[in-house]
């Protein structure tokens, strides 16, 4: 096993019980869910993409709660991957802004097309995990 994979894996195993392989699988799964929620389908004849979040918000109340519940799941998984409280608060803030946009009838439907909270959150999570992997790899290299 390469040193970078072993050191990244060991940074997570004692606390979260996850190997680097399981972390990579979780990252891919969360990225796919964010894409499904925010940009799964291209509107024909345009470069505009919409997702399940916008479609669910067409159903007042329950649709919005379902969409935000799925967004909450992304945050829950980020917590499980070791995201620090500050990052989790930023992610919650993105979902909060999305919720505020979503509750406005008609305007909210269009807002969901352009404010992609889930993809913003996945980008934040990827940046955090990539930085952690670089830090862990650098520490392992320095110890050798």
Q: Secondary-structure element sequence?
A: HHEEHHHHH
Q: What is the share of helical residues?
A: over 70%
- What is the count of helical runs? 7
Instruction: Detail the poorly predicted runs.
Output: 1-16
Strand order of the largest sheet: 1-2
Tell me about this structure.
By secondary structure, the chain is mostly helical. The protein has one domain (3-137). It is 77% helix and 3% strand. The protein has helices at residues 3-16, 20-39, 52-56, 62-80, 85-102, 107-114, 117-143, and strands spanning 41-42, 49-50. The chain has a two-stranded antiparallel sheet. The two termini are 15 Å apart.
Give a short overview:
The chain is 77% helix and 3% strand.
Furnish the topology, listing elements before pairings.
Layout: H1 3-16, H2 20-39, E1 41-42, E2 49-50, H3 52-56, H4 62-80, H5 85-102, H6 107-114, H7 117-143
Antiparallel strand pairs: 1-2
């Amino acid at each position: 096993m390469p040193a970078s994979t072993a050191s990244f894996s060991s940074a997570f195993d004692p606390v979260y019980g996850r190997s680097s392989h399981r972390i990579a699988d979780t990252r891919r799964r969360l990225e796919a869910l964010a894409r499904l929620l925010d940009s799964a389908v291209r509107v024909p004849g345009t470069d505009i993409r919409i997702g399940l979040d916008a479609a669910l918000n067409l159903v007042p109340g329950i649709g919005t709660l379902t969409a935000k519940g799925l967004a909450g799941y992304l945050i829950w998984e980020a917590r499980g991957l070791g995201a620090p409280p500050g990052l989790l608060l930023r992610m919650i803030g993105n979902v909060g802004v999305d919720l505020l946009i979503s509750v406005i009838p008609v305007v909210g439907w269009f807002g969901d097309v352009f404010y992609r909270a889930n993809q913003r959150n996945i980008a934040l999570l990827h940046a955090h995990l990539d930085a952690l992997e670089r830090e862990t790899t650098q520490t392992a290299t320095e110890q050798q």
